[in-house]
Design a protein that fits this description.
Elements: H1 8-31, H2 37-40, H3 47-71, H4 80-110, H5 116-170, H6 172-185, H7 191-211, E1 216-218, H8 219-237, E2 241-246, E3 255-257, H9 260-271, E4 280-286, E5 290-296, H10 310-322, E6 327-331, E7 334-340
Parallel strand pairs: 2-4
Antiparallel strand pairs: 1-3, 4-5, 5-7, 6-7
Helix pairs in contact: 1-3, 3-4, 3-5, 4-5, 5-10, 7-8
Length: about 350
C-alpha cells in the first residue's frame, strides 16, 4: 500500500508558527515595542538579523518535520533497528550542521558577531526544539494513520452497503416474474385482455430496469408503478382484491427505496386468503411522518411458499439508504408497515 503523507501545508504552517513564536521577542524589539538588548546581552536586532533567524528556524523545523513525518516511513521496511539508528543519525546530523552553519552564516549575513550567550542559547533551544519536533511528528503520523484507517473503513462500508443493496434489489425480480407469468397463463385465450396484460407487464419491467440504476425514487413514481402492478393482480383476482390509495400531494416528491410498495402489496397477496367470501383490501395512505401500507389479516389455509425475507429486505434498504427503520404492526387483526417519510 502506498505510504500516506502528512500534507505539506500542515508542515509549512507549523514550521512558520514555530519560527514566528520563537523570534517574536526579537521582532518586537526590532519594531520598537521592546528593549532588552543591553540587559540580555544579545546581538542588536536588525531587519537582516530578524529575517535570518526566522528563515533559519523555519528551515530547521521544516526539515525535521518533513523527515520524521513523511520520509522516515520508507526506512521501516528495513527493520526496527535500522530505522531507529538511521533516525538518530539523521536528526543528530541536522542538529550538528544547523548549529555549525548558523554560527558561520550569521556573521556573513548580518555583519554582527554572535555573543557567547547567543551561541549557548541557540544550541539549547535547538536541542529542545528537536525533541519537541520529533514528538510532534509522531503525533502527526498517528493522526494521519487514524484518518487513513477511517477513510478506508468508510470506503469498505460503502462498498459493502452497495453490494448488499444490489443483492437485496435482485431478490425482488425473480419472484415477481413467476407471479406475472402465472397470471399470463390464465389469459392467453383472450387476446384483448392478454394484450393489455402484456403492455402493463412491459411497462413494469421497463420501470424495474430503469430504476435499477437508482436506489431512491419519488413516491409519485412508485404509485404509477403500483397502478400497473394492480392491473395485473386484479386480472387474476378481479373483485376479490382491491387497493385504496389516499396519499397527500405534498409527499409525492418524497424519496423512498425503489419497489417497496410493490413488495408490500405482493406480500399482502401472498400471505392472505383472497376469495369471494373474504376479499382482500389493501390501503396505502400517509400521516405526517409515515407512508403506511395496511391490510386486514386473512390467514391462508394453504401452504405459502415464502422465504420470509420480504420485510427484512425492506427494513435493510431503509437502514442503508435513509438510516431509518420501518415499523411493523400486527394489532386488532390489522397488519401494517409504516415507512418513515423524513
Amino acid at each position: 500500500m502506498q505510504l500516506q503523507k502528512v500534507r505539506q501545508t500542515e508542515i509549512l504552517f507549523i514550521s512558520f508558527l514555530i519560527s514566528l513564536l520563537h523570534n517574536s521577542p526579537r521582532l518586537l524589539e526590532f519594531i520598537g515595542f521592546l528593549d532588552y538588548t543591553q540587559v540580555a546581552k544579545t546581538a542588536p536586532p536588525s531587519l537582516v538579523d530578524v529575517v535570518f533567524r526566522m528563515s533559519f528556524l523555519f528551515s530547521f523545523s521544516y526539515i525535521i518535520l518533513q523527515y520524521n513525518t513523511n520520509l522516515d516511513g520508507y526506512l521501516k521496511k528495513y527493520g526496527k533497528v535500522f530505522y531507529f539508528i538511521s533516525s538518530v543519525l539523521f536528526n543528530g546530523l541536522v542538529l550538528f550542521l544547523s548549529t555549525t552553519f548558523y554560527y558561520e552564516l550569521y556573521d556573513d549575513f548580518t555583519g554582527n558577531n554572535l555573543y557567547v550567550r547567543d551561541e549557548r542559547l541557540l544550541l539549547f533551544i535547538l536541542v529542545i526544539l528537536l525533541l519537541a519536533l520529533i514528538v510532534l511528528s509522531r503525533n502527526l503520523r498517528y493522526k494521519l494513520q487514524i484518518r487513513t484507517d477511517l477513510e478506508e473503513r468508510e470506503r469498505m462500508i460503502k462498498q459493502n452497503l452497495q453490494n448488499e443493496l444490489a443483492a437485496l434489489k435482485n431478490q425482488i425480480n425473480p419472484h415477481f416474474l413467476f407471479n406475472s407469468l402465472n397470471s399470463l397463463n390464465s389469459l392467453i385465450r383472450d387476446n384483448k385482455k392478454a394484450t393489455n396484460f402484456v403492455n402493463q407487464l412491459s411497462y413494469m419491467y421497463r420501470y424495474i430496469l430503469q430504476s435499477s440504476h437508482h436506489n431512491l425514487v419519488d413516491i409519485n413514481e412508485e404509485l404509477k408503478f403500483i397502478e400497473s402492478y394492480l392491473y395485473l393482480i386484479k386480472m387474476r383476482y378481479r373483485d376479490r382484491f382491491s387497493v385504496v390509495i389516499d396519499v397527500k400531494l405534498e409527499i409525492l416528491k418524497v424519496k423512498i427505496p425503489v419497489l417497496v410498495l410493490q413488495l408490500l402489496v405482493e406480500n399482502a397477496v401472498k400471505h392472505n386468503e383472497i376469495s369471494n367470501r373474504n376479499p382482500l383490501k389493501v390501503k396505502i395512505y400517509n400521516t405526517k411522518d409515515f407512508l403506511i401500507v395496511e391490510n386486514t389479516i386473512q390467514p391462508r389455509s394453504t401452504f405459502v411458499d415464502s422465504t420470509g425475507q420480504g420485510l427484512s429486505n425492506i427494513n435493510k434498504r431503509y437502514v442503508l439508504l435513509k438510516e431509518k427503520q420501518i415499523i411493523i404492526s400486527n394489532k386488532n387483526n390489522i397488519f401494517s408497515v409504516k415507512m418513515p417519510l423524513k
